[in-house]
Amino acid sequence: MVRHHRGNNDKHELTVPVKATLPNLRRLFIEARTDDEEREVSRKAFYNAVLFMSSVAVFSLIAQRMNAAK
Predict the structure, then answer these.
(1) Which of 21, 37, 38, 45 has the greatest CB tally within 10 Å of its CB?
(2) Are 34 and 18 contacting, i.e. CB atoms less than 8 angstroms apart?
(3) Which residues, in sequence order, are CB contacts of 27 under 8 Å at separation 6+?
(4) Which residues touch 41 (CB under 8 Å, ≥6 apart)?
(5) Using CA atoms, how far apart are residues 55 and 50, in angstroms rounded to an integer?
(6) GO terms for CC (predicted)?
(7) What is the phi-psi region of residue 57: left when phi exceeds 0, alpha when psi lies from -120 to 50, beta otherwise?
(8) 22-67 pLDDT, tens digit each
(9) Angle, vertex CA 29, rays to CA 33 and CA 17, nearest 5
């Protein structure tokens, strides 16, 4: 969608795009890899997320026990 803004002088018209369309970066990366490569990347990301959440849970439990001991 493009809006037109006319100033004091009707000869000059300023066209300003309202919404810039950006490419879907995830789709571009998926299309650049084979199915096996995409599966490997997805699996690695999943394991990293699980490892991160597990480490947060472990540190949280340790902190709770340290505060309970005081």
Answers:
(1) 38
(2) no
(3) none
(4) 33
(5) 9
(6) mitochondrion
(7) alpha
(8) 778 878 877 888 989 989 999 999 999 999 999 999 999 999 999 9
(9) 150
Domain ranges of the chain: 2-69
Q: CB of 39 within 8 A of CB of 49?
A: no
Compute the Cα dihedral for 53, 55, 58, 63 and give only its sign.
negative
Closest CA to 17 of 5, 8, 35: 5
Q: What CA–CA distance (Å, rounded) separates 2 from 19?
A: 8
Task: Write down the pLDDT at residue 50.
Answer: 98
Give the tokens for residue 49: 């997320």
> Could you please report the per-residue DSSP string of 41-67?
HHHHHHHHHHHHHHHHHHHHHHHHHHH
Measured distance CA(38)–CA(51) in Å, rounded: 20
